[in-house]
Specification:
- The protein has 234 residues and is an alpha/beta fold.
- The protein has nine helices and eight strands.
- Helix 1 links the parallel strand 3 and strand 4.
- The structure holds flavin mononucleotide.
- Flavin mononucleotide binds next to helix 1 and strand 6.
Length: 234
């Protein structure tokens, strides 16, 4: 599904019927060569399919332009240059956040790590507590750390008190064996290939859309109820 107006240029939000409440679902990601960007678009498509308007954001780049050029990534960056860069403070306005990061040695990227490390103020006032958090990823190789990347990122989301949503097995595409594919119960994923030559398959994109719909539908029920949920636990 393609959109005439990029998500990041639209600024109206979904209103819950009868409640007049704005529900904001963020897709916050880092991408160097475009694979996570493509997956982020599919996650956003899923959010749209659930009846919400997603907001796509990038985390700040920490690499100098010359390094990006040397890594051969400059041409890919043009695809997502217009996606706004989010600040840690802005993250607190989300009702749900679906994070995307490529794998770096089986873990999230330094860019994502350094963004999350700047969210201490949000943590201190529990700004994300009781909200839905979810993660998707991309790795070069089939067994190069997709699951460890997602799971290790969940730790930070749990410290924020987020309610973790993965990719349930009701997404049947994660059980197929007739083709190589990403996606696991932890979240959607794609295999980029050693030289980034492979782009997300239809099955991987379907997983990303599913994750978007899944998170959006959970959020539909709990958005705005964080204080109530937390106080009921006391
Ligand atoms: C420093 C570095 C470390 C990486 N570590 C891994 C790794 O541990 N496992 C793996 O499969 N791919 C690894 N990769 C490949 C990236 O995960 C791959 O380029 C990325 O998923 C592509 O996503 P993007 O196009 O959104 O940037 C690494 C890449 C770099 C530059």
């Amino acid at each position: 599904m393609m959109y005439a107006i990029p998500f990041w240029e639209k600024r109206s939000h979904y209103l819950t019927p009868g409640e007049n409440m704005v529900i904001r679902i963020f897709v916050v990601y880092y991408s160097l060569f475009g694979h996570v960007h493509r997956m982020a678009q599919a996650v956003a498509e899923g959010i749209v399919q659930a009846g919400f308007e997603p907001e796509l954001y990038r985390v700040p780049e920490t690499l100098p332009d010359e390094v990006i050029e040397k890594m051969g990534a400059t041409q890919f960056q043009t695809e997502f240059r217009n996606v706004p860069v989010i600040t840690p403070e802005e993250l607190g306005h989300a009702d749900a956040v679906i994070f995307g990061t490529p794998t770096r040695f089986g873990n999230m990227t330094a860019q994502m790590r350094s963004f999350l490390d700047a969210t201490g103020k949000l943590w201190s006032r529990g700004a994300l507590a009781g909200k839905v958090g979810s993660v998707f990823t991309s790795s070069g190789t089939q067994h190069g750390g997709q699951e460890s990347t997602i799971l290790s990122m969940h730790i930070t989301l749990l410290h924020h008190g987020m309610i973790i949503a993965g990719l349930p097995y009701s997404f049947a595409g994660q059980t197929i064996t007739h083709e190589i594919t990403g996606c696991s119960p932890y979240g959607a994923s794609t295999i980029a290939g050693g030289a980034g030559e492979r782009f997300p398959s239809e099955n991987e994109l379907a997983g990303a859309r599913y994750q978007g719909r899944y998170v959006a539908n959970i959020t539909r029920y709990i958005a705005g109820k964080q204080k109530e949920i937390l106080s009921l636990a006391e």
